[in-house]
UniProtKB/TrEMBL annotation:
Name by which UniProt lists this protein: Peptidase M19
Entry-linked Gene3D superfamilies: Metal-dependent hydrolases
Top-level lineage group: Bacteria
GO biological process: proteolysis
One Pfam family recorded for the sequence: Peptidase_M19
GO molecular function: metallodipeptidase activity
Native source species: Hydrogenophaga taeniospiralis CCUG 15921
PROSITE patterns linked to this entry: RENAL_DIPEPTIDASE_2
């Protein structure tokens, strides 16, 4: 079985510490997808981060590999390495050019969503006015499908997610999203969205962020409660994990260059207060407690393995292997 972390965030700085990656490896995780850019980050920030992360990972082949296939992740599991992939959070780094998707894919970006909380020319964000997928957005979905990249709907508003799932010819995922029925927050998703994701063959990955779980100090049992809700609604084969931990280093400033307004991207009226500085996260070590927590909510061994990674591996095997460009 594969242990698959669908989304986490190192500081967006070329010199970000890889200590969290080592903790993931120690916790028994085999694949981690780390963010390399959001809608508020210009290419002048994203590309140095991506270049540095790639170079540093490839400089330690005994510890890490950058996967192109699920077989690569299987190899990492068998050899004690950690497979590290990349994701983009938002379409602005694509510069309104669908061909940019395949370029990022070739650099190791294997997962992308189209709007980070706010609307753009491609898609609508979850903390903005309902917009839906634009004509350019439909072309972008096709580009993501053609490139064999995972189409992600996290941070994206309800109407847009439903449009994406209607237009995608491959399974769609939410890499870090929780049921709105259990925690009232604009980042969480409705039963309609969960069912639509499952109908594509996709996976909803539960986030370990306090506000999205509806608790103050997230633990494994909090995640298991949300997992159980989705599993009861659409089946355990459609649930995964994306703890969405935001790591920071006091000595590194990874804010976007120039004028940057955190209150725009994380609006106070949506419950963020001081941006995301007050967020609490389930720690990496939660991974080690999750098997027992999932069994405690009634899951058998096969379902537990699915939630912890085999479900995402199934979808990635289908999507990554379907590149047509």
């Amino acid at each position: 079985m594969i242990r698959w972390e669908a989304h986490t965030c190192l500081p967006l700085h070329p010199d970000a510490s890889f200590e969290p990656l080592e903790r993931y490896r120690t916790a028994g995780v085999h694949h981690v997808c780390i963010n390399v850019g959001m809608d508020m980050n210009p290419l002048s920030q994203i590309l140095p981060v991506l270049a540095a992360f790639r170079a540093r990972l490839r400089a330690e082949p005994g510890r890490y590999l950058i996967p192109s296939t699920v077989a690569d992740i299987e190899h990492a599991r068998k050899t004690g390495k950690l497979a590290v992939g990349f994701d983009l959070e938002g379409a602005l780094p694509l510069l309104e050019r669908p061909e940019m998707v395949a370029l990022y894919r070739d650099l190791g970006v294997r997962q992308i969503h189209f709007a980070y909380n706010r609307n753009n020319s491609v898609a609508g964000g979850c903390h903005d006015q309902p917009q839906g997928l634009t004509a350019l957005g439909r072309r972008m979905v096709q580009a993501v499908n053609d490139a064999g990249v995972l189409m992600d709907c996290a941070h994206t508003e309800r109407r847009t997610t439903l449009d994406i799932m209607a237009h995608s010819r491959h399974p769609v995922v939410f890499s870090h999203a929780n049921p709105l029925a259990l925690a009232e927050h604009g980042r969480n998703i409705t039963d309609e969205q969960i069912r639509a994701c499952a109908a594509t063959g996709g996976v909803v990955c539960i986030s370990g962020v306090s506000k999205f779980l509806g608790c103050e100090a997230p633990q494994a049992n909090d995640l298991a409660r949300h997992v159980a809700y989705v599993a009861d609604l659409v089946g355990a084969q459609h649930v995964g994990l994306g703890l969405d931990i935001g790591f920071s280093q006091a000595e590194l400033n990874d804010d976007p260059p120039g004028a940057f307004d955190p209150g725009f991207w994380w609006p106070a009226q949506a419950g963020y207060g001081r941006g995301i500085s007050q967020m609490r996260y389930a720690p990496i070590e939660t991974w080690q407690a999750l098997p027992d927590a999932l069994r405690a909510v009634g899951m058998g061994s096969r379902d537990v393995d699915g939630v912890l990674g085999d479900n995402m591996a199934r979808v990635a095997r289908q999507v990554w292997g379907a590149a047509t460009d």
